[in-house]
C-alpha cells in the first residue's frame, strides 16, 4: 500500500517547487493545519506568525491577511468553540460576589451546545493523549485567559486561585461529558450552577 | 499480512484444545488479563467471577483461589494503586466537619507516591481514551466507593454531593498531574490541602 499523501504525483518532477505558494483555494485551511502543527511542536509561546508561514510555505503577510493575530490563529487552529477571551471578559463584568455563578453558567453553556460539546470533548481527549497538545493548550490558555483574569481579579494568590478554578471546571467536564458519572450526567443545569457557584466563588475570592 | 494472533500455529490441529487449563506458572496473571478484558467488554456490574473464569479458560474455583471477590479482581486488574474502600473508610472515620481535609490529604497522598502517580495517570489516560474502560471504571468505583460513602454520609442529595466531590478531585489530578498547569503543579501539598478542604467539605455537607 502506498500513502497518497507522501507519494509524488505524476507531475512532481516537471518543474521546481515554489518555495512560497500564493493564496490557493484552501490556503486558509492549510495555514490552520500548519498552525496546529507548529503550536504542537513549539508550544504557544515560542510560535510566531512567521514560523506558521514557514511551515505552511506561504508569506507571513498572507497569514496576516487571514488571521489578525497569533491568538486568533490559536483559537481557530485548536478548534475552540468560543473565543475564551470574550467569555472571560463577560464573566469579569458584573458584581464581584457573583463571579462564581456567572462563570459556572458560561462554562456550562459552551459545553451544553452540540457543537461546543463535540469540540471541547475532542480537545480534552487530545490534551490527555498528547503531551505536545497539552503544552500548547496549557500555554495558550494561560496567556489568553488565566493571566489576564488573574491581573483583573486583584486578589492575593490570584494565579493559584484561577488555576484552582480550572481544576473544578475541568473535573466537571470530565465527569459530566467524558466519564459520564451519575448523577452529575443527568443533573439539571440550574442545580449544577447552584452547586458550583459557591465553590468557584470560594476558589476565586474566599 | 497475516495477524499472528488469529492465525493457527503449526500444531493447532494435532490434538484437542483443553477447555479448562489447570493452574500454570502465570495463571494469576492470565486471570487478571481475562478480568481486564471482561470488565471492559461487559462493564463492572455484568461481570461475574464465572465470566472471568470462562474468558481465562480456567475453572471458577481457581479464580476464587487467587481472588477473594469480584471487587478484588477489579482493584487488581485495573491496577489501582490502593484499595479505594480502605481510603473511603479512613476518610469517613473521624469528625464530620473535617472530612474534606481528610479526603484532600488521602487523595494527594496516593497521587504523590511515585508508583501511585504512574498508575493513576495510566488509569486516567485509558479512561479518557476508551469508552469501555470508562464504563468499567465508572461502574466499579460507583459500587465500591461512591454508593457506600453516599449511604454513610446520611445527608440529602448524598449521591450528587459525592459525585461533585469526584469532579473536584478528578480535575485536580488532571491539572496537577496531566495538563501540568502552573501554579497548581508546583504548589506545596499543604497549600493544596488548605485550598481544597473547604471546597470538598462544601460539596459534601455545605
TrEMBL record, chains A, B:
Highest taxon listed in the record's lineage: Bacteria
PROSITE patterns per record: HTH_TETR_2
Residue stretches spanning the membrane: none
DNA-binding region location: 48-67
Keyword annotations of the record: DNA-binding
Span of domain HTH tetR-type: 25-85
Family annotation (Pfam families): TetR_C_16 (PF17920), TetR_N (PF00440)
Region Disordered, annotated ranges: 1-28
Molecular function GO terms recorded: DNA-binding transcription factor activity; transcription cis-regulatory region binding
Protein name (Swiss-Prot/TrEMBL): TetR/AcrR family transcriptional regulator
